[in-house]
Amino acid sequence: MMRGPRGPEGDRGRRGRGFGREDTPAEVKALQEALESDSTPVEEIKSKLDAYRKARQAQEKELEQAQDKLRQILSVRQEATLVMMGMLD
Fold first, then answer.
1. Tens digits of per-residue pLDDT, 4-44?
2. How many H-runs (helices) and E-runs (strands) does the chain carry?
3. Nearest Cα to Cα of residue 19 among 38, 7, 41, 35
4. Which of 16, 37, 38, 51 has minimal Cβ neighbours within 10 Å of its Cβ?
5. Enclosing H/E stretch for 88
């Protein structure tokens, strides 16, 4: 088996959405830290959860806009391929 620049899987291991990624948004980190402590007040958790949801909605809107731009330059065949791959809706 050939080894990629970052291990046997190449870059594939960095594509997940899990916690602990270097590019984890601040809202995710803040919510995670709040949940790690049993003494975090409920109102603080609610506040951090609201911030997380707003950040996620903004990311989804940005993704939709990028996908729309991409669709403008794709052929129907290319678009269908990307839909089948789960990269476009």
1. 444 444 444 444 455 555 678 899 999 999 999 999 999 99
2. 3, 0
3. 35
4. 38
5. none
DSSP per-residue string spanning 22-54: TT--HHHHHHHHHHH-TTS-HHHHHHHHHHHHH
Annotated domain spans of the chain:
24-84
Contacts 24+ apart (CB under 8 A), 47-55: 51/27, 52/27, 52/28, 54/27, 55/25, 55/27, 55/28
Burial of 61 (0-12, 13-18, 19+ CB in 10 A): exposed
* The amino acid at 23: D
Compute the distance between CA of residue 26 and CA of residue 51 in angstroms, rounded to an integer: 10
The answer to whether 71 touches 79, Cβ cutoff 8 Å, is yes
Q: What is the pTM of this model?
A: 0.63
In this structure, what token pair is assigned to residue 88?
A: 């476009």
Instruction: Give long-range contacts, CB 8 A cutoff, 24+ apart: 41-49.
Output: none
